[in-house]
Amino acid sequence: MPDAKTALMAYRLENASEKLKAADMLYRIGCYKDAINRSYYAIFSAMRAVLALDGIDYAKHAGVISYFQKTYIKTGIFEKKYSKYISIAFQIRNNCDYTDFFLVSEDDAHEQLTHAREFIEAVRRYLEDIGRA
Predict the structure, then answer these.
(1) Rounded to 5 degrees, what are φ and ψ at 103?
(2) b or e along 37-66 (b: 16 or more beta carbons within 10 Å of the residue's beta carbon)?
(3) Residue 131, by phi and psi: left (phi above 0), alpha (psi -120 to 50) or beta?
(4) What is the maximum span of the chain, computed from C-alpha positions, in angstroms?
(5) Can you give the pLDDT at residue 132?
(6) Is residue 30 left, alpha or beta, with left meaning phi > 0 and alpha meaning psi from -120 to 50?
(7) Spatial separation of the C-alpha atoms in residues 12 and 2, rounded to whole Å
(8) 128 with 52: CB under 8 angstroms?
(9) How many alpha carbons fall within 13 Å on the CB side of residue 20?
(10) Taken in order 112, 49, 128, 25, is the CA torsion positive or negative?
(11) How confident is the model at residue 82 (pLDDT cuts 50, 70, 90)?
(12) For the residues of 10-69, what is the DSSP string, one character each?
């Protein structure tokens, strides 16, 4: 029987997969801003899945991002490119959600969806490597 941290990790990873599926569906029907939003939240949920194993969570997105980057990217557990993926996803999602007249293209949405898919796969591989997936 999985412990509470493992159960929370699994729940959050499933949540990330669900958000990725929603991002893909929104992208396919041309809702690019909403696809970007769901792509970001897929990445965010995957980060929180990893943090669940550490017993860590934060009230603000910046806290989750900072901890993940410090603990998992700067130490080389995850490739440095994921730091850029996370930062860009956070910024473009904020712009899509809160900046009036912010324009995004199909290419922008596709890039964010691709990055989210790649990031979630990297998280899955990491969790398998440590025997938690």
Answers:
(1) -105, 135
(2) bbbbbbbbbbbbbbbbbeeeeeeebeebbe
(3) left
(4) 50
(5) 80
(6) left
(7) 14
(8) no
(9) 21
(10) negative
(11) very high
(12) HHHHHHHHHHHHHHHHHHHTT-HHHHHHHHHHHHHHHHHHHHHHHT---SSHHHHHHHHI
Query: Given the structure tokens 């929180």, which residue do they identify?
Result: 48
- Residue of 16, 26, 35, 28 lying closest to 120 (CA atoms): 16
pLDDT in tens, 47-81: 999 999 999 999 999 999 999 999 999 999 999 99
pLDDT tens per residue, range 119-132: 999 999 999 999 88
Say whether pTM exceeds 0.70: yes
Residue 1 has pLDDT above 70, yes or no: no
Lookup: tokens for 104: 């995004």
